[in-house]
């Protein structure tokens, strides 16, 4: 199973910039998307004519037009789709998970979008509550012994290896100890494995997000905030990982780059 995850920064904008075609051509068995920013009809229109049309679609749009939204696309059958990660977040467009049937295996794949937050504000408190809700869900995966993986833009750099300017970002949202503690706890208590980091080895990087502004991309002054975190049974089957970083600034189709992992099922 090749699993590709990407924050598309708006599926319609990504289509105009060639991103949807890139995802269609990468050979993935499952594609997860974040910040879709579209309703069902707009999502299907954006993938029409690219090789992704006709695929199964699990989509959780935001009730606020033009915001958030997560989705999962696959040519393989879906057994069940769930969007309930806590009543507070119903309609937020931040969580969708599906049981995908691949060659006799059933793999639970989730696409999550965690908003950026702002230290010391109610927005940051909401971010913490969402991370807690995600933690409860992955704990259930561990108890059930699932082949499962959490993909998406978590807007948290877990360690100093995951962003270029870590010293300058101390105390800022995305690099707060209380945010990082969630990822640490998911690993320690529920056995989630950061498969990209495990396969790649120590950092710094590879980064998955760079500002559109200035020369951040050209200087590789980025953050690694997009992940594939797998339960232990699935992580043991991860064999290769990479970041689909554009060759040049002009070829970027999002401010994020996709994360791709091969699993030997």
TrEMBL record:
Annotated Endonuclease/exonuclease/phosphatase domain residues: 4-256
A Pfam match: Exo_endo_phos
Site feature (Transition state stabilizer) residues: 155
Gene Ontology molecular function, alphabetical: double-stranded DNA 3'-5' DNA exonuclease activity; metal ion binding
Free-text remark on how the cofactor is bound: Probably binds two magnesium or manganese ions per subunit.
Positions of the record's site feature: Important for catalytic activity: 226
Site feature (Interaction with DNA substrate) residues: 256
Alphabetical list of CDD domains matching this protein: Nape_like_AP-endo
Cofactor: Mg(2+); Mn(2+)
Active site (record annotation): 113, 153, 256
Lineage top rank: taxon: Bacteria
Keywords, alphabetical: Hydrolase, Magnesium, Manganese, Metal-binding
Binding site for Mg(2+): 7, 35, 153, 155, 255-256
GO terms classed as biological process: DNA repair
UniProt-listed NCBIfam families: xth (TIGR00633)
Record-stated family: Belongs to the DNA repair enzymes AP/ExoA family.
Name recorded for this polypeptide: Exodeoxyribonuclease III
């Amino acid at each position: 199973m090749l699993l590709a995850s990407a924050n598309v920064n708006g599926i319609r904008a990504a289509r105009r910039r060639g991103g949807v075609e890139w995802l269609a051509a990468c050979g993935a068995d499952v594609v997860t998307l974040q910040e879709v920013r579209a309703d069902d009809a707009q999502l299907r229109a954006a993938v029409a004519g690219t090789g992704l049309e006709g695929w199964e679609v699990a989509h959780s749009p935001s009730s606020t037009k033009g915001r958030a939204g997560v989705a999962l696309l696959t040519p393989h059958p879906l057994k069940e789709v769930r969007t309930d990660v806590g009543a507070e977040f119903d309609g937020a467009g931040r969580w969708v998970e599906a049981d995908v049937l691949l060659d006799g295996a059933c793999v639970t794949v989730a696409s999550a979008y965690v908003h950026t937050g702002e230290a010391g504000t109610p927005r940051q408190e909401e971010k913490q509550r969402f991370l807690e809700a995600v933690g409860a869900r992955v704990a259930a995966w561990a108890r059930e012994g699932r082949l499962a993986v959490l993909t998406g833009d978590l807007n948290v750099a877990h360690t100093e290896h995951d962003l270029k300017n870590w010293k300058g970002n101390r105390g800022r949202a995305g690099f707060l100890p209380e945010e990082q503690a969630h990822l640490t706890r998911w690993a320690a208590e529920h056995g989630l494995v950061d498969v990209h980091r495990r396969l790649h080895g120590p950092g710094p990087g590879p980064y998955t997000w760079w500002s559109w502004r200035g020369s951040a991309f050209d200087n590789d002054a980025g953050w690694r905030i997009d992940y594939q975190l797998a339960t232990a049974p699935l992580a043991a089957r991860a064999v290769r990982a990479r970041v689909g970083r554009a060759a040049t600034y002009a070829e970027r189709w999002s401010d994020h780059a996709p994360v791709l992992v091969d699993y030997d099922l």
